[in-house]
Amino acid sequence: MTVSPDISASLARAGRSAWHVGLGLVLLVVILFAASLLIGRAPLALLELLSMGGEEAAIARSILLDIRLPRALLGLLVGAALGLSGAALQGLLRNPLAEPGLLGISASAALGAVTVFYFGLAGSLSLILPLGGLIGAALSVLLLYALAGRDASVLTLILAGVALNSLAGALTALALNLAPSPYAALEIVYWLLGSLADRSMREVWLAAPFMLAGMVLLLASGGSLAALSLGEDTARSLGVRLGRLRLLVIGGTALAVGAAVSVSGAIGFVGLVVPHLLRPLVGYDPARLLPLSALGGAALVLAADIAVRLPVGAMELKLGVVTALVGAPFFLHLLYTTRRQMR
């Protein structure tokens, strides 16, 4: 098949633009990661830290390695998982409003963690809370396939996801309503608001393998998603197996988002906002969009986590509140522009 010179030039421009955007995002993530290590209620100056000695140096190293480093690593991984999952789901479902919460995976992971709080198990073992979230995400994928079937259409998948999302939300509300004590209810509410505070390297070691495995599966779907953007019939003619592609994207999303929610709580809108901001910069190519969305998601969550540490009031803002304050107006703008384009 012969490609016209205009199309070839357009593809070349999109490729160069993707490289430039990628390099810019890598630089931004590096800067934000370093800022996340140094900014907080006890500011650390790197040069002063290197020149410190004795007990003062030990305290500073403890703040840096035991408190700031796990938080920065989780911000990087959680943001990348959410941004990448959103881009992959929008490509698979060909729905600009798709995000990890649409299939009920985020809500189910949150329900798994809430169940741990409800039965008072969170304090018995430090790893049981993230394990509860992972189990909730795994069960949601099994239920999703049981409801929709392996070869389900896109519409059936969305409807099954909406039903699963509603069920998980209802059970979470029931757990709040029947919480054994006001303290337990408060713990659940705070956790649902999302945060990376007070996380340790244990959470990083537990969740990182699942998040990285999920992201590898999602990145592997890039070529097939690019073919699917031309339509299901064209994708099949190009050799794409749609059942395998759905399994790859949904399984990857469950691993990445389930692990992310299990250690950070509910952080919304990252998977919706980031792909929309980056898509026009890469020529609307799903294959190029995936890695850039991972970088963009990491930058957004790192920036939001730095923002919650700024002294606004007596209490630290919750990360999920900040992302919602950014994402909700963007969502309304997206709905408005989509409605105008459909007229």
Automatic annotation (TrEMBL):
Give yes or no: UniProt keyword Transferase: no
- What's an example GO cellular component term for this entry? plasma membrane
Topology term for the membrane: Multi-pass membrane protein
The entry's family comment says:
Belongs to the binding-protein-dependent transport system permease family. FecCD subfamily.
Q: Where in the cell is it found?
A: Cell membrane
Q: Where are the membrane-spanning stretches?
A: 21-42, 72-89, 101-121, 127-147, 154-175, 204-228, 248-277, 317-336
Under the heading CDD domains, the entry gives:
TM_ABC_iron-siderophores_like
User: So which domain of life are we looking at?
Assistant: Bacteria
Which Pfam family is one of those matched by this entry?
FecCD
Q: Which UniProt keywords apply?
A: Cell membrane, Membrane, Transmembrane, Transmembrane helix, Transport
GO biological process entries: siderophore-iron import into cell
Mind telling me what this protein is named? Hemin transport system permease HmuU
Molecular function terms, GO-annotated: transmembrane transporter activity
What PANTHER family does the database record attribute to this sequence? ABC TRANSPORTER PERMEASE PROTEIN MJ0876-RELATED (PTHR30472:SF25), FERRIC ENTEROBACTIN TRANSPORT SYSTEM PERMEASE PROTEIN (PTHR30472)
